[in-house]
Structures are given as structure tokens and as C-alpha cells.
Amino acid sequence: RGFGQSALSVISLAMVGKWFRRQLTVAMSVYSVVISVAFMLAFPLIGALVQSAGWRFAWSAIGLALVCGLAPLAWVLDRSSPESIGLEVDGGIEAADPSDDDTAQFTLGDALRSPAFWVFALAASMYGLVASGIGLLNESILTERGFTADVYYRALAVTAITGLAGNFVAGALAG
Prior knowledge:
By secondary structure, the protein is mostly helical. It has helices at residues 6-19, 24-53, 55-77, 108-112, 115-144, 149-174. It is globular and about 55 Å long.
């Protein structure tokens, strides 16, 4: 799952975390809004494409857009961290020296040997597996219950809107 569609989310979330420290909550808010709006726009567009040209063409178009559009854009714009190109985190805030940090520092090997890592990774993978399975079969489930395909696509847009509202509430409570 990490090499499929989830890789896009994992990479983009990690980039935000690497580039922002002091303004991380603001950066994640902007990220959440942009992603939610993009999904709200994409669901009806892809739904219309599936209805007019079929799912094979729609998935091919998505793949082509990712490979020919997003991948080259990411290659041009992506930098691992601000420090890797001579910038400071948060536009002028010095990055903290890890040796001054009181929290434990783990290597990749340490993390892979940790039971907590595997519990979290497997739980996240299982959630993704179930959520994707239901999401991918949702149109068939609704059609079987007598709903039209456009109900499915509208439901996806509503889900994105309520997810965005949930992110705002969670962010307000976390602050």
C-alpha cells in the first residue's frame, strides 16, 4: 500500500513536516484545505470521466497525469529539507541541533526493530486496506441498493467536505 496511492500522501505529509517547525500547524492547515478542495474537485471530475469514457480510461488518465504532470513537477520542486538547499526552516528559524534535543534519536534499524513501529505500521495499513476496499467498492454497493452512480460521486465530495470540517475541529481542539 505504501508504494501505491498512499505514497503520495505519505510523501507530501513528510515534506510539510520537514519544512516547517514553528509554523507547522499553519502549514498543515493550508495542506489540509488544499488537499480537501482538490479531492472535492477531483471526485466529480473523475466520476464524469468514468461515466462518459469508462473506468479504464479514467484510471489511465489519472496515471498519465501523475506520471507526466505530478512526477516531473515534484522532481523540479522537491527538496528533502530547507537545509539541503542552504535555507533555514520556517524562513529564518534556525533548525534545532539534534544533539541538544532531550528526546531519543533512533536510526532506521532501531525503528524497524521496535514493536511500536510495527504495531503502528500494521494498524495504519489495515485501516488503509479496509478504507480503500470499501471506497473502491462503494459505487457497486450503492448501485446494488438502487442508487445511481452520481449519488456515489456526490457522497465522495460530501465526505471530503466533512473531513475538512473535522480537520478544523481537531486542529482547534489540539491548539
